[in-house]
Structures are given as structure tokens and as C-alpha cells.
Amino acid sequence: MTQSSKYPERIDVIAGQDRPRRNAIRHAQGRGRFVDDIAFANLAHLAVVRSPHAHAEIRNIDVSRALAVQGVVAVYTGVDMKALCKPWVGALNHFPGLRSPEQYPLAVDRVRWNGEAVVAVVAESRAIAEDAVDQVRIEYDILPAVVGIKASRAADAPLVHQQYDSNQSFEMTLTAGDAAAAFDSAYLVVEEVLELGRQTGLTLEPRSIVADYDPSLQALTAHHSTQTPYQMQDLFARHFDLSEENVRVISPDVGGSFGMKLHVYGEEMATVAASIQLGRPVKFVADRMESFLSDIHLREHLVHAKMALSKDGDITAMIVEDATGIGPFSVYPRTSAMEGNQALRLMGAPYKMPNYDGHLTVLFQNKAPTCQYRAVGHPIGVTVTEHLVDKAARELGLDPFEIRRRNIVTQDMYPHTTATGYILERLSHEDCLSRLEKMMDYPRLRAEQAELRAKGIYRGIGIATFIEITNPGPAFYGIGGARISSQDGCVIKIEPSGKFRVAVSVTEQGQGTETVMAQVAATYMGVDVGIIDVITGDTERTPYGGATWASRGAGIGGATVMKCALAMKANLLEIAAVILQGKPDDFDLTDGEIVFKETGNSAITLDELCRIAYFRPDTLPQDYHPQLSISRHFVPQGTPFDFTNGVQASYLEVDIETGIITLLDHWVVEDCGVILNKQLVDEQIRGGVVHGLGGILLEECLYSDSGQMLTSTMADYLAPLAAEMPDIHIDHICTPTEMTPLGAKGVGEAGTAAAGSVVLNAVNDALSPLGAQLTQTPLTPERILRALGVVTD
Amino acid sequence: MKPNLFQYVRVETIKDAVVLLHELSDAGRLIAGGQSLVPTMALRMASPEVLIDISNVPELATIEHKQNVLRIGAGARYADVLASSVVAKTCPLLAQAIPFIAHEAIRNRGTVGGSLAHADPAAELPGCMLALGARIVVQSVAGQRTIPAEEFFLSTYLTALREGELIASVEIPVIADGERHLFQELTRRSGDYAMLGAAFVIAADGAKITDARLAFFSVGDKALLAKGAAATLVGQSLTPEIIEDCATMAAQELDCLGDLYNSVAMKRHLVKTLTRRVLGELLKEPS
Amino acid sequence: MDPLYPISFTLNGRVIQQEVSTRTTLVDLLRHQIGLTATHVGCEQGSCGACSLMVDGRMIRSCLVFAIQLEGAVVETAEGFTGDTKMDALRKAFADRNALQCGFCTSGMLVAARDLLNRDTTPSREVIREFISGNFCRCTGYEAIVDAISKVAEGSGSPRDAQ
After folding, report:
1. What is the value of ipTM here, to two decimals?
2. Does the distance separating the beta carbons of C144 and A686 come in below 8 Å?
3. Contact list, A289 vs chain B (CB under 8 Å)
4. C31 touches chain B (CB under 8 A)
């Protein structure tokens, strides 16, 4: 790092990067503890009757035969749930006009997607609950289903909600400068309609919850595979009329989340309701088919975008119409408008482009609800922008690197506000592009491509520049009225042994949060990471905070721990000074020992300091109270987000006879500020890239014309397996942020933001000599062959 | 995804199995490897009253070569067939095809008989049996009968098996001199159901083809033989033109059905492409 | 309630007796009756590999076999492999290389890795990738897993350094 920071206490190299994660050691020995692993006394199990129809009136529900099944404890309908749970609406004030009807845990009067939960059965075992599910008799009057964005916005479309005048949930316009004028005077206009398919999260551990209500204390404990226990604590309290302090949410090990487990789900609320009613623990674990049917889905955008350029290839404007197809409800509490909102704002974001006209329409459908999931909106914003950039480059005869160089926001322009209103502190596009070009040996790849083309082998190279939203501030949800905390808290206590316990309000789903927090604490206290135990994921044992979303854990959680660690260090130096009758300034804590600053000699060990402070404070001056635990909270300040930036590239081969794509290589250059743990950062990038590769090549939630979900098994819904994935080369540039004292930004979503884009660009690069272009994702073999004109009806 | 309750019975001989099948009529269902049956039961798409476990019937697990016939017991696991040197020698087609079946863990349990009885149109083995001109040996309390592969697979999940019958073994003609076995499958991911699969058995006298059985799977409601296309090869030495005609004929003559990701037009195109590629392999070899 | 039947088999080196419903799969028996929870359930269709373990020396999907079918069988779960130094090496390599993030696929992945090294002591990266394609991972993108297995494989090339 060459720039000096306004935080003199910042340390550039974080300790402990060479150690394996404690959680990794534990899981590798089979000692994971996921919700379904935990044994409970008197546990009951919940299973759900799901709607077979995409849209129907519920005429009658007969649960009598289900109740008669031996081992059944209770059966609930939507009407029952109305009495047990306050309804919710997935709307936020900062999306003015966003409309969505009230929702209860189970469908009331109508079912609105194939898979919606209608009746909940509680029984002594999951198998018996499913036996009883089969005995529930429901009469439906089928209604016309709205399936597809085009169908949803058609003038004569059936309505998903009778009380609304259309299927529009939300609409938003974003303008900057004068796009119309820019287009009028443009040298070149490139235009495209891109159809980006619907996907699902497919976490390997499905959604899981055990709700355990104690009627004697009116206290609820929920063991919940969630990213956000504090939000859930708040929600359970409000919707079930419980005192917040009597609600405890524990997220044990979480087997993958990526945003999917941030949202409120009817069956989980029904499980809480059942436990409160029954006064015993009730478990719900979604099976794989239920996961496909009722986890939030993501993406599904139809984007009509235009880009105006000068003769030299300067992007002067974009006009974007983004229609997103959600489900029948905007999901609570974060809304289903967020992805479209971010997609719209990320268009053209790396570039100087001063003029913009963006319009978002969010449309109801009779499909599963959609909401935030890894890299929310980024894949759309990046894919659309970078596709048009490449298209323009081809028309202008410019190399893809060159056109980007001409347009990126440069070092001298920061801080910079994009046309879409994002404030960028400082990014490093130029360095990233140069590094990438070198890393991938770009000229060699172009030469190889040309050589092979002559032999009828079609390889493509695709690149993309992107920015990523991380470390969100309070404006993200708070302004909208959501009770989603944007600050975090940390408590550090020193044990009599001289070891530390750090409780912090960010959470772990495998990305390494606990390890990184330990590293930050160790670094800023001056001790070994091995003597630090980190506690997360329990609303009772940690301060209240923001948990994990939008890549905030390392940056914001880390800054919180940093502040607390520095305060704990100061306390320890003060205690040492009192014990040794010196001044705190005489001492330092380094390598786990309190030393004399001047000589470096050992002054007192931590366990000796603790022995005196805990067990012999009688030897200390009167009125001196050693502070052996300390807490600090941290609110992200400055810009609403800390943006990171990066570039990616893909090298692939298209078999033009079968449409099968072979990924040959993949590169990422990422700038996420101060790196707290290089291995963990790189592995987040790799995992994120493969997520994006899945979305561009394989993953799609398919529905029939009548709204039947067609991809409800892992044989039909295709996600990346090891054989087809490339090794991914990663390098870093480092631009620390001044928005937090720690200097670290987030990185969890960067891989996913642009991986799909570079594959699309590479495929189109491969096929452009043949006059074929792909504009619909995922890139199935048939879509490739149809674009090539090789398959026709 | 828990199955409905069932009764469970384990048998150790074919005789016991068929007697039980007869007694239980449609209430009894055989389980061998369970790799197709158990998922179906988990989804409650199958809810047998009685499961008859034949996964430990020694007579069903044999693999033997006798008088130009390779006989594989219905209970032989894919992994054991793949590992068998007898199979490698007498039927290279199976050694080529089996690695494409799902993944290792499935192959360790799934059985040959299970695959044939399940008759998934996307499965490899029915296609192979068509290409090999295999005969399926079927047993019941009434005795034994043999059904040529071409008459065995009727449609999706439908075979010529009657109630009370089980598959005892499959009899495959041992590879003859000058005969070639060729197998290729197109998938997007390793282990997936095929976009299209081809299993070819070509008999030749020197460079001249004397017989050809061109089987395709994941193409229609069952594995299919392209008979017209095969006929174009008989009596010929392969050239690119002959291959092209054959490929075109196969694409036209087969009764193709689309699947979730591939339309009929796509299937026909893939039939043509794969035929060209597979026969093209033959052309590359020294005769 | 389901009628129960006695079965007995060897589990991680010890002979055990249990009473099971006919419809209880091996994975559900292990997880909920016996309390060995390292083997996970991801799909109950045999597609994801999270439930992979060894029965009679072969890797199988424990979600696709009913416990009652396994009378006399020898079962080894991820919690077992006691004294198996290669498995110890794999566990250490996975942790060192961060070849796991959420840990849900890890038991199945380790069993698959161990099975692979039984059959091929020096698998190439391509062979490793092919073999572990029966195990779905949503977190790692697979490369770190390939690195870890490569490292343990006898005499194979060195793992890719984390740049």
C-alpha cells in the first residue's frame, strides 16, 4: 500500500492468514452442527401441502382424514394462521409506489404459484407428516396463470391480483444528463434485447428451522439456518406478538446461503406458529423438491438496452428498459425490487458515460417469488453493459480492451459519481485491465484463436469490467423502514487464562467470517490468532447487528472488531500500567505479551495479568476496577457503499455442431481493498465465479405455459459440477478504503457479478465470424445451434 | 421426501422371488440396486405394498462367457460389469458405455437388470442391448422365456415384462472377428442423462461392412434402431459420402421426441451429427 | 406408527443392533436414530452426493438404500476411517487448502476422495474432477478440492499455489 491512510492505527498486514480455519478443521472431521443435526426432546415435524396449481381459488379444504392419521399432532390452514400470525407486506418506503398484498404463512383464499404452501401438518415424524399431507383434500377452482414477463405485461393479461389494475408491482425511472440528445448526436448506436433466465439458489443444506417455544416463559428459541438471526428475532417478535428479549434466534452451521436464507418464508413462519400453539419444538426442513418450488428464485430479466457512442468509441449514453419477472408477492422484508433497482443502477457503472435513461418495471407472475441472491443485480447490469460494449467494439473495429480503456473512469477522476448516482471513492480500473491483459497473455490467445478458426475450431475470448457494491450503509434498508440493522457490535472478554472470546454480530455461512474476525482481533490486539475464540450467530450471546448480506461481513464486521480490539488492548495496557506502576504509554502488547515499549523486554504475561485482575484485585489500588470485557459498536460512515472493482476474462471453445461449450480458462483481477485473508478471499472469488458460470451455461427454472414448475430435481435443474469447471487464475490490486478504519471492502459477490458476462462475451466473440449472436441465457446447446442456423424447425 | 410405508421381504433365490411375485401379484415390487426405484418411492410416484429385495441373489449376479454368448445376470452391478475382464474381452461396447452411467456411487449399486426393467428412454443400457442384438431372459413361476431386445422395450418405462416376471439375465452375442463396437454420448455435464447417445455394433469382413446395428438413446420414447440408415452401410466400405447418407437417413427415419432442453429438430440434428462422428472414428482407423 | 424390525451391521468398526422401519433409509438411521450426523441429506434422489459413504467397501448413496437391506453389511461413514492415514491426510489437506466453506458437502467429498485414491494413487486433475463430479458443492467452485486431493495423492504434481 503506498497511499497513507487517515487512520494511523490501520495495520496493512493482517495476522493469521497462514492458518487453516478452525471451522474447516471441524467440518473435515465430520463435526458440523447444522439445524437438522441437533437432537431435541419431544420434537415434532412439519410437512406442507403445496399448491399443484399456478393460480387457483381455494374452494374447500378437508383435513379430517389427515387428522386421523396416527402420529399426527396438528393440522393448520391459512385461516388458522391468520389468527396466529400477523401478516406481512414486502414493501419499503424508499421504493415509493411498490405494491404487494398482505401475506400469511399459508395461502388464504387463493394459491398463486405451483408450490405455494397451503396446509401445514405437524406429526411425530416427517414420514408420518407426509402420509398425512397425502390425506388432505383440497378443492381448487383453477384460474388463468400469468407466466412470463411478456405475458405479465400484455394489455389483456389476466391479473395476478384482482385488487390491482395491472401486474406491475413497482416502477422506477432514473435519468442523468440528456440521453435523448446523446443518442441524436451519436456516431454509433448499438442495441439489444437480452433475456436473462430465472435461477434458484440451490444451497446444499436446504432451508431448516426448529422453533422451540416455552409457554412457561413465553419465550421462543429458533434454531434457524439463516444468515440474519437479528432480523429474524425482530420479525418473530413482531409477527407473533412476543417480547423481543424473549426471542432468541440461533444460526448454527449454515450449509450455504448466498442470500437465499435472508428472506421470510411461509413454512418457517408456520413452524414458529405451530411451536407456539403446541408448546413443543417443531422442525421444518425443506426437501429438495420443496426447495426448488419455494426457495426464492432470482434473476429473470428482459432488458432492452441501447448504447450511444462517439466515433472514437466514447460511450455517451445508455437507455435501458429492464423488466423483471418476480413472483406473486414482493418478498419480505427486503422487497423483490432490489435486484432490478441495482441492475438499473449498475448499467455502465465502470464508465465515464454521463447520460442515462433507465426504466425498471417489476412484474408479478404466478411463479415462485424472487428476491436477493448473490451479486444482486450485478450479473444483469454487467452482462447488458459489457455485451453492448463488445458489440460496439466490433462495429468500430476496436479491440475489447481498447474500447474499455477509452471509457473507464480513471484515477484522476475520483471521487466520482456515476450517471446512475453511485458515489465511487476510488477504484483501479486501469491497473486491473493491464494486469489482466498480461496475466492471460492476451496476444497469444488472439493468435491461437485465429489459428484455430482457420481450422474450423471456434474459440472465444470475453472480458468484462465491473464494480461491486459492498459494505452498505444505513441508507440501504433503514431509510425504507426495514428493521434491518446496518451497524454491528462486538464484545471482547479476556479469560483468566489470558485467552480471548470475541462475540460479534456478523455471521458465518462458510465464507470464513469467524476466522477473519479472529484475525482482525489478533492483529489489532497484538496476540496470536490461536488464542481467540469467536462467537457468532446467536442473538443472545452477541450484540445486535447487521449480520451477513451485501458483502458487509469482513469490511463492517471487521471494522467493528478492530475498534473493540484496540479498546481492549488499551484496557490491558492500562491494567498492566497499574500493576507495574507505570504509564500505559510505557507498554505495548505484542506477540501475546505485554512488553516495555522502549526495550521490548517482557513486562507481564497476559495470564499473569488476568490472575491478578480476576483473583487478586485486592492487590491493586483502591477504586481501580480493571475492565476485562469491552464492547464497541460501529456504524459505516461516508459513502453509502464501498465499491470494489475488478475485471474478468473467459477463454472457451464452442462446438458448432453440438452447441456444447467447453470452458478452457478463466481469470479474475479483483480490487477489494485491504485483504484480510488471501486464501479466503480467493476462494470466495472462485466460488462466486462458478456460481456465475452456472447461471450463464446451465441453470434455469423452467415453467410450463400453465405455470407448472418443470425443473424440480437436480437431474433437471443443472448446476456446475467439477468436471466442466476451469481452474481460475486470480490476481489482486489493492485500493484500501478510507470509509472504514480497517480499509477492507467486501468480496463475496465479485466472482458472480461478471462471470456470466465474460462467458456470453466469449461465446459471441467465438461465433461472430459466423454471424451468430446469443442474447438469451442460459446458453443451452440448442440456443447456440439455433443462433448458428444449424437447427431450425 | 419420505416414501410410503411398505412391507419388506428378502429372497435369496430366483425361485423364491418369482413365487413371491406370483403370490403378491401387483402388490409386490422388486428392488435390486434401488437407484431408480428408491428416488421414485421418495417422490411417492411409486408406493409398492411389498418390496422384494433381490439384491443378494447370487444366481442373479453371475457374469459368464459360454459358447459365444456373454451372459450377464440381471443382478450384476454396473461397477462389476465394468470391472469384468470377461466383459472387456467379449463386449467392449459395455465397457465403453458404463462409465457414462451417472456416477461411481450409483454404478456401485445399480444393476443391469434394473436398468433394463426401468426402461428409461435416456438410459445407456437399453440402447446398448439393441445395438448388440441381445436377448433378455425372463423368468416367472410359469418358467423361462427369452425376449429379443428389439421386442423388449415398448415405450417410456414400459417393457414386455408381464406381471409376475423378473429379468434373470441378458444374453449378448460375443464380439466376432472384424466386429466393431462404438459408443458416444453427448452431455453438458459428466454423468448427466444424454442429450443424445449412440451405440453402434458394426460387423465387417475386411473393409466391407456385413451388418450394422445403429442404436440411439435419449432420442424418443425408448431406445431406437436406425434400420434404414444401417441398411445403407451393408455391403459398403466406409467413405465420407456413405457416412453422410447414413447420418441423414438416421436423422430422418427415427421417431424423435423432444425433452426438457432439446426439441425434436435438435434431436434430429444431433442424430445426424453423432452418426457422422461415430462412423468417422471408424474411417480414421487402419482397416 | 411404523412397525419396527431388528437389524444388525458393522458401523465404523463396531457391530451394532438397531430397530428400523422398513422405510428408514440408511442416512436417516445414521443421523436420527444413531446420532452420527456427519453424513448429510441434500436431495434424497441420489443426485447430490452429500450422503455418500462406504458399504462393503464400495461408495454408495446412503439416501438410496433402506437400512433394513443392510443386514450384516460393513458400513463406514465420514466419522470413521479410524487409523486410515490417507483419510487423515485428506482431512488435513482439505482444511489447509480451504477445500470446504460451509462444510455440507465435505463428508461426501472426503469419502469420494478416499475412494478415488483407492483406485488411482496418482490421479491427474482431470481424473479427480471427473471422479468428484458425483458430489455437488455450491461454495468452493471445486478448484481447492482438486488441489487438496492432488496434494495427498502419491507422487502427483504439487498443488497449485494460491498464487
Report:
1. 0.97
2. yes
3. 1, 43
4. no
Nearest CA to A357 among A574, A180, A486, A530? Answer: A180
Q: Hey, what long-range contacts does B280-284 have (CB within 8 A, 24 or more apart)?
A: B280/B240, B280/B243, B281/B182, B282/B180, B282/B182, B282/B202, B282/B238, B283/B238, B283/B239, B283/B240, B283/B243
Among A658, A696, A725, pick the best mutation site for testing chain B contact (most B Cβ within 10 A).
A658
Q: What is the CATH number of the domain that holds A217?
A: 3.90.1170.50
Question: Do residues A444 and A496 both lie within one domain?
Answer: no
Residues A312 and A416 in one domain: yes
Cβ–Cβ gap B38/C64 under 8 Å:
yes
The domain boundary residue, chosen from A294, A314, A337 = A294
> Is the domain of A112 the same as that of A220?
yes
pLDDT by residue (tens digit) across B94-118?
999 999 999 999 999 999 999 999 9
- H-state helical runs in A62-178: 64-67, 78-84, 126-133, 149-153
Q: How close does chain B come to A47, measured CA to CA in Å?
A: 10
Q: What is the mean pLDDT of residues B189-213?
A: 96
**B1–A288 CB contact, under 8 Å:** yes
Domain that holds residue A539: 22-32+487-634
If you count residue pairs, one on A and one on B, with CB atoms under 8 Å apart, how many are there? 65
Following DSSP, what letter does each residue of C115-148 receive, concatenated? HHHHH-SS--HHHHHHHGGGS--SSS-SHHHHHH
Question: How many angstroms separate the CA of residue A784 from the nearest CA in chain B?
Answer: 11
Task: Determine, for residues B188 and A718 on separate chains, whether the beta-carbon distance falls below 8 Å.
Answer: yes
pLDDT given for residue C157 in this prediction: 40
CB contact under 8 A, A697 and B44: no
Residue closest to A757 by CA, chosen among A325, A450, A377: A377
Identify which of A702, A723, A781 has the shortest CB distance to residue B260: A702
Cα A68 from Cα C49, distance rounded (Å):
37
- pLDDT tens, A643-702? 999 999 999 999 999 999 999 999 999 999 999 999 999 999 999 999 999 999 999 999
pLDDT tens profile A93-112: 989 999 999 999 999 999 99
Q: Which residues of C touch A253 (CB under 8 A)?
A: 102-103
Do both A704 and A613 map to the same domain?
no
* Concatenated DSSP letters of A211-280: EEEETTTTEEEEEE--S-HHHHHHHHHHHTT--GGGEEEE--B-S--TTGGGS--HHHHHHHHHHHHHTS
Is residue A3 scored above 60 in pLDDT?
Answer: no
Q: According to CATH, what is the number of the domain C85-154?
A: 1.10.150.120
- CATH fold, domain C5-76, is Ubiquitin-like (UB roll) (3.10.20)
Domain stops at, among A294, A329, A347: A294
Q: Which of A29, A507, A669, A678 to mutate to test the interface with C (most CBs of C within 10 A)?
A: A29
Q: Where are the domains of chain C?
A: 5-76, 85-154
Contact criterion met (CB < 8 Å) for A127 and B2: yes
The subunits that touch chain A, with at least 3 C-beta pairs less than 8 Å apart, are B, C
Question: CA A492, CA A568: separation in Å to the nearest integer?
Answer: 7
Pairing of strands A208-214, B196-205: unpaired
In order of A43, A496, A548, A651, the CA distances from B29 in angstroms are: 33, 65, 49, 50
CA quadruple A546, A548, A554, A555: dihedral sign? negative
Same-domain status, A328 and A422: yes
pLDDT over 70 (residue B235): yes
Instruction: State the nearest Cα–Cα gap between B54 and chain A, in angstroms.
Output: 25
Pair (A644, A733) in one structural domain: yes
Residue A349 confidence (pLDDT) above 50? yes
A496 and A431, same structural domain?
no
> Do A279 and A131 fall into the same domain?
yes
pTM, whole model, 2 decimals? 0.97
